[in-house]
Structures are given as C-alpha cells and as structure tokens.
Amino acid sequence: MPSAATSTALPAPPRPRSTPPGWLVTLLVCAGQFLVILDVSVVNVALPAMRSGLGLSELGLQWIVNAYVITFAGFMLLGGRAADLFGRKRIFVLGLALFTVASLAGGVAQQPWQLIVARSLQGIGAAVLSPATLTILTTSFPTGPARTRAIATWTAVGAGGGAVGGLVGGVLTQYLSWRWVLLINVPVGALVLVGAVLWLTESRQATARRLDIPGALLATAGLGLVAYGIVQTETAGWGSAAALLPLFAGLAVIGAFLAVESRAKAPLMPLGMFRKRAVSSANAAMLLSGAAMFSMWYFLSLYMQNVLGYSPLRAGLSFIPHSLSIVIGSKLAPQLMHRIGAKTLAICGAGLSACGMVWQGAMGVHGTYLGTLLGPGILMAFGAGLAATPIAAVATSGAAPGEQGLVSGLINTSRQMGGALGLSVLSTVAAAHALTGDGRAALASGYGLAFHVGALVLVAAIVLMLVALPRRREDTTASRG
C-alpha cells in the first residue's frame, strides 16, 4: 500500500472542461437562428428605400430577396452535412462569421451588384449556420423534457424572426437608413460569435461523410439561371434569346445536378427518397405552396409604400396582425392534425390562403388598411400557418427514423426554392401588367394580378394534394400509435 507522501506526489488528473449551462447554449444557437430567419423578411419594408438609394429597377428589387433565398436553399443540405463531418461548433462559427461579414458588405454597398453579391454570401452563410443550430441543440440535451423545451424555444424563435421582420425593417429604415436592416446583424453576430467560441462545445459524427459540393453548386446555379430567365421575359419577351438562353441553360444545369446526384456516393439530395409517395407528393405541394405564399409580404410591402404612401414604420406596423396570424396558425396546426388528419388540414389551409389572395387581388389605388389589407392579410397568413406543418408531417411520415433529418431538410429546401421561383414569376407578371398603364393605379393593378396568379398556383397545389398525398389518416398524423 503506497504511503501518503507517495500518493500526494502523483500528478492530479486533468480537469475536464466544464459543460456550459443549457440556457446559454440555447441562447447562442437561437440567436444565430433568429438572424437567419429575420433576414428573409426584414428587407421587404426597406425595398423602396433601397431602390431609390441605389437606383434599382422594379424587377431588380426581387434579386435583393432572391439572391438570399436561392443560395440559402441551394446550400442548406450541404451545410447540414458539413456540420456533421467537420464539427457543429466549427461550422456554426464559420457560417455566422460569413453571414456577419456579408451583412457588413451589404450595409456599405454603393452599387446594386455589390448588394446582390452580399445578399448571396449572406444566403450561403445562413445555409451553413442554420442546420448547425438545431443539431447543436439536439446533441447538447439528452432525450426528454429538456431537449423538447430547447427545440420548442428554437422553433418559436424562428417563427418570431419571420414575424417581426417587417416591424424591425420598418423601424430601422424610418429612423436610421435602409442600410441598417443589414448592419444591425454585425454587432449581434459579433457578440454571438464570441459567445460561441468561448462556450459552445464541439461535436461531430463518428463516421465521416463526403460533401457533395458539385451538387450544391449545380442546384444553386440551375435555380438562379431559371429565375434570371423568367425575369428577362418581362423586358425581352418569352421568345427572345435573352430569356430563352438562361432558361434552357438553367434547365440543363438542373439536369446535370440530377445526373450527379444519381451517381454520387453521398448525394446532397438522394433521388431514391422521391420514390416514396409521401415524400415526393409533399415536396411538390410545398414547392407550389411556397411559390404562392412566399411573395405575399413582398407585394404587400410595395403596395403599402408605392401605392398607399405608407412610411416604412407604418408598413412594418401594418404587418403585425399578419405575423400574429401565421404564428397562431402554426401553433394550432399540430392539434388540428390529430383531429382531422394532415392531408385535410393542409388542403384547408391552402384553401384559406387562396381565398385571401383572391380577396387581396382586388386592391386598388384608393385602398385602406381596414378595408383592403387587414382581412385578406389575416386570411392568407393564417392559412399559410395551418398548411406548412401538415405538409411537412406528410413528408416525414414516409421516411424511416434515420431519414427524418434528411427529409426535413428536403422539405425546407423545397419551400425556399418554390419561394424563389414564385417570386420571379409573380414579379414578372406584376411588372409586365404595370407597364400597360401609368402611375399608382397601374402598380396596384399589377400587384393585384400577382395575388390572383398566386391564388391559381395554390389551387394547383390543392389539386395535387387531393390527388397525390397519402389518404390514410394514420400515415400523416404524428405519433398516433
């Protein structure tokens, strides 16, 4: 038996690094997710000020939104896999750093192309950052109430970021400058970066996975070329080379993407997943729904400021009932799914939104908030909140437990891609119609036509859901047993 003196001479074991408290981990990752979601909507109210400040065209405005959304959608699945392979903390920090620097570049941009490039880089940073936020939470908390509370907080913060975007954008544009809708990300991002470096702990998958970088580049390039070709039809016409060349090039690139995915050992988008009816039909429904609903905030913001003469702050405040409606719809959706089934609820939600779009399309130059904006806006937003959750539930019902994360990423990608393409089509429709007249009345008519076309897209989504979504209620409700 060793003596006391010998025992005290032995070196002490190394002290393990202290685990950060759960509330701090939740705060850091939710702050990162809040910035990502906020930047989808915060620029909408600032668009007229951006146009006058940088000399953007009416159609060029959409690229301030689409540059972010397209790169976000194209790189989102790649970002999730990079976090698994290289470490969730490392990828979180990298994505947030890129997002913060790109926000600074956008805030000081002097030319339209500089702002569009900055928004594209923001989208890539968001695509790298966002998947890591949820994965950090699920790996930091054990299965049970603590993890459930953390994920619920993450979900609520994401919904809140989208909901308050219009108000935040209005306040910053009104009292500071449109540049601050981007610059505000810099101090917040820097603070979260410091906290992440100091307190987050690293985790990664034990098995290495390949990164499908060619797939991400091809998907993003194909989507961007198709969107650009659609925009060119407004000025050059559908039969012009300026429109047809990028359209055909985009379709060819998308074809190359599908070919790469079919042969890749670790594909970004495993095409075999789409052989499952629930996955393929739900993604198609989400693509169409996103194409119609995503641009609602864009056109309402332009209508309020360009036609009704609202200030940025007033426009932002006007979005509060819409934002509350979509949050309420999202919160009610899980309860209603258990009563009437996911398929029925998705159809009802899309139907409500379609009715709201038809109503909103009647907007005119002498519209009022109570008579023109409030009722249809609440109906559109409430329907959108009801529809999104059941469509995602249908998609994940067709996946094995080990595929749930992949299918969730696919459904989010479909929503973003649908939104980008829908914004391109509806902006082109609105701009082309506005050119047939003069002044505010022509703008109002163009925006109204965009809402009516959006309603037709939702009708197509409803028909698809009626025909293709799984019929059995037990296939589409969560944990029915």
Question: Topology, pairings included?
Answer:
Layout: H1 4-9, H2 22-41, H3 47-54, H4 61-86, H5 88-107, H6 112-140, H7 145-175, H8 180-183, H9 185-199, H10 213-236, H11 241-263, H12 277-293, H13 296-307, H14 312-318, H15 320-340, H16 342-360, H17 369-397, H18 404-434, H19 439-468, H20 473-476
Helix pairs in contact: 2-6, 2-7, 2-9, 4-5, 4-6, 4-10, 4-18, 5-6, 5-9, 6-7, 7-14, 7-15, 10-11, 10-18, 12-17, 12-18, 12-19, 13-19, 15-16, 15-17, 16-17, 16-19, 18-19
Report on this model:
- The protein is an all-alpha fold and 481 residues long.
- The protein has helices at residues 4-9, 22-41, 47-54, 61-86, 88-107, 112-140, 145-175, 180-183, 185-199, 213-236, 241-263, 277-293, 296-307, 312-318, 320-340, 342-360, 369-397, 404-434, 439-468, 473-476.
- α4 runs antiparallel to α5 (88-107).
- The protein starts with a helix and ends in a 5-residue tail after the last helix.
- Mean pLDDT is 82; it is low at 1-16 and 473-481.
Short account of what is shown:
With 481 residues, this protein is mainly α.
Task: State the helical fraction.
Answer: over 70%
What is the strand content? under 5%
- Kindly state the mean pLDDT as a whole number? 82
**Number of DSSP helical runs:** 20
User: Class by helix and strand content?
Assistant: mainly alpha
Please count the beta strands (DSSP E, at least 2 residues each): 0
**N-to-C series of helices and strands:** HHHHHHHHHHHHHHHHHHHH
Evaluate the radius of gyration: 23 Å
Uncertain spans: 1-16, 473-481
The main β sheet shows up as: none
Shape: globular
What is the straight-line distance between the termini?
59 Å
